[in-house]
Design a protein that fits this description.
With 115 residues, this protein is an all-alpha fold. It is 77% helix and 0% strand.
Length: 115
Amino acid sequence: MENPFLQELSALLQETEKLLACPEPDTAAWEDYRRMRRETFARLESAGSTADGTGEPRLMKELINAVLERDRLLMQKVEECLSCCREGLSTVPKARQALSGYLPPRRPSLVQRQA
């Protein structure tokens, strides 16, 4: 792989696979991937097609399609994670209400006492 775009796309694909394999990647990993992906595709777009008859455009197309397919899987993973977060957040008011009977009564603040 002499073409730097092929190397870059291969590295991007490897990073995508890492995110897919990790049960819950941290925010920094997602941000690093987002930045890497944006930079890679910006360079590809600015370079245009590099059809030189060596078969590399076919390889690039295959790598791009593989990255896009993994991106689709990543989006599904993010949607599942968001769904779990929404479910957890929806239970907070109910839990707070259930616990309110167990908490000691709040003492009025100094401002409320003077009023």
